[in-house]
């Protein structure tokens, strides 16, 4: 399904998945203290499950985007690596991903 999206829609999907993956990663800062400090494991279980699904989806969308947008090996590698670093997906969204979801006129002004 993602392979059938037009370029702008794929760019938007990439940005949405990147932001959601980044948020799910940062939510561990809340759920880990609950798990290990207060022995409340349920939030960490659900955030972990959501993060795992979003992580895999992010990597798939990055791979499809890299091929469709003909990214360099560096951009592809940095995009994949960004999912392992806190705030990494937000940074990649700012530096790279937003170019592909904007209208052509907005992209020209950057």
What fraction of the residues are assigned to beta strands by DSSP?
under 5%
User: Which ranges are low-confidence, i.e. pLDDT below 50, for 5 or more consecutive residues?
Assistant: 105-110
The count of DSSP E runs of length 2 or more, i.e. the number of strands, is 0
Helical proportion, percent range: over 70%
- Total helical elements: 6
Q: Give the averaged pLDDT, no decimals.
A: 91
Q: Provide the gyration radius in Å.
A: 16 Å
Note the overall shape: elongated
Main sheet summary: none
**Helix vs. strand class:** mainly alpha
What's the SSE pattern? HHHHHH
How many structural domains can be distinguished in the coordinates?
Answer: 1
Structure summary:
The chain is mainly α. It contains six helices and no strands.
Structural account:
With 110 residues, the chain is an all-alpha fold. The chain has one domain. 75% of the residues lie in helices and 0% in strands. It contains six helices and no strands. Helix 2 packs antiparallel against helix 3 and helix 4 runs antiparallel to helix 5. The longest helix is centred in the middle third of the chain and has 28 residues. It is elongated and about 45 Å long. The C terminus is likely disordered.
Name its key features.
single chain; mainly alpha; 6 helices; disordered C terminus
Topology, please?
Layout lengths: L6 H20 L1 H11 L3 H28 L3 H10 L5 H8 L8 H5 L2
């Amino acid at each position: 399904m993602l392979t059938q999206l037009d370029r702008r829609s794929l760019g938007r999907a990439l940005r949405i998945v990147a932001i959601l993956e980044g948020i799910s990663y940062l939510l561990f800062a809340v759920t880990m203290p609950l798990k290990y400090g207060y022995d409340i494991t349920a939030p960490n279980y659900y955030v972990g499950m959501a993060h795992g699904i979003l992580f895999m989806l992010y990597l798939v969308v990055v791979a499809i985007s890299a091929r469709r947008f003909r990214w360099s090996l560096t951009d592809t590698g940095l995009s994949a690596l960004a999912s392992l670093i806190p705030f990494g997906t937000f940074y990649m969204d700012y530096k790279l991903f937003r170019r592909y979801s904007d209208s052509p006129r907005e992209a020209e002004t950057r």
